[in-house]
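Let us work through a complete example step by step.
Step 1: write down the sequence.
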Amino acid sequence: MKSFRFLLAGCALVTSLIHPAGAAAAPALDLRAYSDASGAITVLNGGASADPYFAMQALLLAHDNGMVIAQPAEKFVNWLLPRQKPDGTFDRFCRGAANTWAACQSADADDSLLAMWMRLLETMPDKLAKNPAWQKSHSVSQASLAHLFQPSRGVYMVSPLVLHGLFMDNLEVWSLKVHSRQAAQRAEAGKLARAIHATFWNPVDKRFLVSTQLEQRSQKAAFYPDHVAQVFPLLVDFPLLPADARQHYRAWMQQHRSEWLNHGKADYPWGVLAVLALRQDDKATASCWLREATPLRHSARWAVTDETAYQLLVSKGVNAVDAAARCT
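Step 2: predict the structure and record it as tokens.
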């Protein structure tokens, strides 16, 4: 089972751009607290660890919710691209002497990382079209991801060495296909969606399984990955839900809202769910998250994705609720 990826992060600020005509443009994601001159994006505020998953999750979260990511995204791509392995996969990196970076650990999962990498490249279509190195990387990544496809189930395995499939990873692959500019990829999205539902939906318990591993059926459900997995489809707009999106969201919040809002007291605050709350027109819950989570900024329990979520909420005018308001 994939380990919980949310580590540490620091602070950043929301910046805005103004068009010449005077109309406010989309806010720009500011990752200066997480990046160095080379373009690396760390999971710590000025830290010594760079996990491509965190960087791409933050960049895509911002992009998918209307923020400008061009500056940090291009620098990051140019930093990571020469570090991509010949088979298309990626490692995690540690900062050494003289601010040099070296691979120090394998990635958690190849399938989701390859999908997110291709999606990130595709958010910059003009640059992708003009850059042969980017195009080659995209092609190599696409071939590497294809090798992880498991025809018997119609879903993707974690890696060549980890031969089970994960629900949330496959949703990230589906997200790549449904957003793709390639007609063939978009055509595959529907087939993959049906396979994901057939493989991971448990009609008896009326829950999504987190893995194809049989042993996970008998394990006690935890907030991550089990409970998060139930709401993760809404983060990527996956259509095959047991109820319509609004009902599914409300049912999840009724069960897990308090647990989530208290999660930061001992772990990480899961800011991506606050972004989801705002997308579901649940501004009250997003405001509660800001009140509960903002004190964690700059702390050991604040991930770069939490900082991105914070910037998104603030840029959209969300304010923390008053201290007297009841949230949990």
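Step 3: interpret the result. The two ends are 30 Å apart (CA to CA).
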